[in-house]
Structures are given as C-alpha cells and as structure tokens.
Amino acid sequence: MKAICSKINLKEAVGLCEKITGKNLSLPVLSNILISGEGRRLKLTSTNLEIGLSVEIPAKIEEKGMITVPSGVINNFLSSLSLDENITLESQHNSLLVLTSDTSTLIKGQPCDDFPVLPTAKDGNVFEIPASEFVSGLKSVNYAASFLNIKPEISSVYVASDKAVPLTFVSTDSFRLAEKKTNLFFPGFKNILIPIKSVSEILRIFDGKKGMLKLTLNKNQIFISLDGIDFISRLTEGIFPDYQQIIPTKFIADAVLDKNSFAAAMKTASIFSGKLNEVSIGVDPESDFMTVSTSSQESGEHTGKIKAKTIGEKIKMSFNHRYIHDCLQHISSKEIILRFAGEEKPLVISGTDDNSFRYLVMPMNTL
Length: 367
Known about the structure:
- About 15% of the residues lie in helices and about 45% in strands.
- The protein contains six helices and 25 strands.
- It has a twelve-stranded antiparallel β-sheet with strand order 14-11-12-13-25-24-23-18-21-20-19-22.
C-alpha cells in the first residue's frame, strides 16, 4: 500500500478509531488500526469485538494494500506533528513508513490476517434520522442509565418509535429515569437497547456532525453511517422495564420556578450535604417560596429559598442532589415545574413550555 493524504484528515480518523480498539491477550491485533487503501479512499478500521468503526478519508492511492499498526503509537506520533501538510504512508512488510516533508518514521505493525472482518449492513430495516436529533436524544438521557452491567437492559438506552409513537429515548438506573421525545415518527422501527458504552462512543463520534444518519437495524446489531464514517454495535438482549407504569398520573403539589435559580440553590445546598448527597426540597402553597435545605455533621447546615408558584399540599422530601442537577441542562425552558406525587413516590421534573423531556427521581427515603 502507498497513499498520500492530508495529515489533518488522517489525525482525525486515527483519533476516532483509537478509542474503539481493545486489549485482548488472545487476539493482540485488536489493539491495532487496520489501514487500507483502494480507489481514491484511505480506510481506517478498529474494533474491540463489541463495537466497530471504519472511517474513510480522501487520498491518492498509488498502490493498494493494507496493514495494521498500534493505535496508540500512530495517534501519539501524529499528535506530535504539525498538521498543515500532506503525509505519505507506505507499507513495508509488516511496518508502515510515514513520510512528511522533514521526517521519516517506520512504525512496526502486525499482519492483517488475524484482524476481524466487520459485519456489513446488508440486511435489516433502514431509517434516516437527522444526526442532531439522534445525538440530542441520546445526550438527553444517557447519564441516567446504569453504568453497572448487572442488569444489561438498564445499562442501555432504550430507543423506540412507530407509526403512532414518536422517536423516544429512555434510560434508567432504577433510582431515576429520563425520557426524551422527538417530533419524528418511524413506522416499523425496531425498539432497541443500545449499550451505554456504545452510546458514549456514538456521542463522541457523531456529536456536532450535520446531515442525515443512516441507521440500519437487524436482530442483534445497529449500523450507523454518515459521511464516510461507519459505526457498528451489538444491541443489548432483553426487555426494557415498562417504565410507563411508574410515571405518576396524580400529583398532590406543583411548583413552578426559574430553572437557573433552582440550579444555583441546589449547587449551594450541595456544599453542606453528607456522603449520600442528600438535599431536602420543601413546598408550602401558603408561601411564594420553595425551600432547599441540607445539613451534615462535617460541614454544617444550610437553607435557601427560591421564589415559586406553588399549588397543592405542603410537602417536604429528600433527594440526591446529583440526580436532580444532571437533568437540568437538558431542559430548554427557562422555567421548570416540579410535580410531587406524594411521599415515597417519584418527583417529576419538566419544562413549562417543552413537554418533550421529563425526568423522574426517587426520594432518598425509598432508596
């Protein structure tokens, strides 16, 4: 193989692929990136057997071929170079010769024979989704998924749609739940569970990308393609909890307040919270305030008041302040509404003028 390409394009492609590589004692080639050249494109491929990625960049291919090189070595090397000129890549036996205007570097590689062949999206249902919508949906809920793999179905993001169901993203760790709905409808969409580790990679790779994502879904895998980038991941097997059953339909108290003021009050209160991150939220319809209070033996105690429009019954409940803080940046409204269903029942948080996102968090005394 011999190819000439832009150092900027190569560095970006290598950076994307490096994170996908894996360490496997029985298959050490997985720590490498497969580089192949044919036609007018240079293709970089990496996999850890759970997920895979290939990135194509424009190149002048003088001789087709392929080679694998250690991802960390080539990524660190390219990071040390100025990125304002072209670069020449030439395979020599099991090594890669890298030439610039003032450097000559030989990177030792490995034979390509043991490198896994990634599955291709030949079969399955195909959907086109704006990249911004898909990324936004995953971002809005991924933090609420469980990062423990004890229950794989909740260590995933649930994505669903149908003729009468908008494209919806949901995640939960059993202590809180986030749901984001879009205005898009996809009849025949297969309800899927994307592993949380794969979600993190999807966000890293496609965040900020414009255009339409091509999603291909089959029984066990999801393929995502956009502008020369092809991502593949296994899907989680299992059934996502019927979360609609835990969403309260009756509430005993509501509080409408400024989102930024609430976030600031929670941040201040968290300074005095204990090891369990416990913060108490109180609502009294007879006043125009909501209280946020906390205390700990180590740091002291604090109570803050926030102007709020309140209705219903008087109630005070304790929550993990980190769980509440996580959701606020995903609410676009300036004002939010906190809906209390009663003691030992979840608090529901949403925007006053945007019903596309809602968030449930369980009180501390039920954890």
